[in-house]
Structure formats: structure tokens, C-alpha cells
Design goal:
The protein is built from three helices and five strands. It has helices spanning 10-17, 59-79, 126-139; strands at residues 22-25, 29-33, 43-47, 84-88, 102-107. It has a five-stranded antiparallel sheet with strand order 1-2-3-5-4, with helices on one face.
Length: 140
């Protein structure tokens, strides 16, 4: 894969500059500490190529990318002596930097993290749920 960076992208700048906050890097993926962590050990996993959203990531890079997310999740849990991790991607909406990134956040019971979860809703009916499912199936 040819690495492509965007000069104005904060994450492309991090990748170009290196630094002590980088915890993992290979030819396709890098991971580094979030500069404003929810908790110590909050890591961002990014593709080296500048892509904005998950659906922009080339199919051949999806497996290697999520393989690193999986490894980082385990390492954050063990390294931070956490009870688990929260793993999330904001895809365009609420994406603070327009470069695909996956948050890996160490979690412990009672840590107070609530902001990522929104009110749940029910479908109006089984027919309503079926219409939504059909719309997504058509696009797949």
C-alpha cells in the first residue's frame, strides 16, 4: 500500500513526527496515546494512509487494521490493569479529526464514563423494524 498523508491532518502530522506517545506502528497502522484522554491509557488506532471514514478504508486493509485494534485493546487492558476496554469509532459525525481512528479506552467498573451512551429507542412496530432492515439490506 502506498502511504498517503494530508498536510493539514493532525493525525498525519503525528505519524510523520513520531514521538513518545506512539505505542505501536507497522507499515499500515499506528497507535498512539490520545492527547486528551478519557483515562490514562486511552489510545487511538489509525491507518497510516489518510482515509476519513471506515468505508474509505481499502478492503485489503480492514483485517490488518482491526487486528491491531484487537491487539491494542488487550494491551491497554493488561497494561493499565483495567477491567476491560471501550472500543469505538465515530464515523464522520462527531469525528474530531477527519482521519479514521478507533478509540481504545481502558475501563474499570464505576469509572464514571457515561458520555458515549445515548438513550435507546424501540421501533414503533415489527413492520417498522422490517422496513429499516430492508433499507440496509438493499444497500448491502
Amino acid at each position: 500500500m502506498v502511504e498517503r498523508r494530508v498536510a493539514a491532518c493532525v493525525f498525519c502530522g503525528v505519524l510523520a513526527g513520531g514521538g513518545a506517545g506512539i505505542v505501536y506502528e507497522d507499515s499500515r497502522v499506528a497507535a498512539f496515546l490520545d492527547h486528551r484522554p478519557l483515562f490514562p491509557g486511552h489510545v487511538l488506532v489509525v491507518p497510516r494512509a489518510h482515509v476519513v471514514a471506515l468505508d474509505d478504508l481499502p478492503p485489503e486493509d480492514v483485517g490488518p487494521y482491526f487486528g491491531v485494534v484487537q491487539r491494542v485493546s488487550g494491551a491497554v487492558e493488561r497494561g493499565m490493569h483495567a477491567g476491560g476496554t471501550f472500543v469505538a469509532i465515530n464515523n464522520k459525525v462527531s469525528q474530531s479529526v477527519p482521519h479514521l481512528h478507533c478509540h481504545v479506552v481502558p475501563r474499570t467498573k464505576g469509572d464514571g464514563l457515561r458520555g458515549f451512551f445515548w438513550p435507546r429507542q424501540r421501533y414503533d412496530s415489527d413492520d417498522d423494524a422490517a422496513r429499516v432492515a430492508d433499507a440496509i439490506r438493499r444497500e448491502l
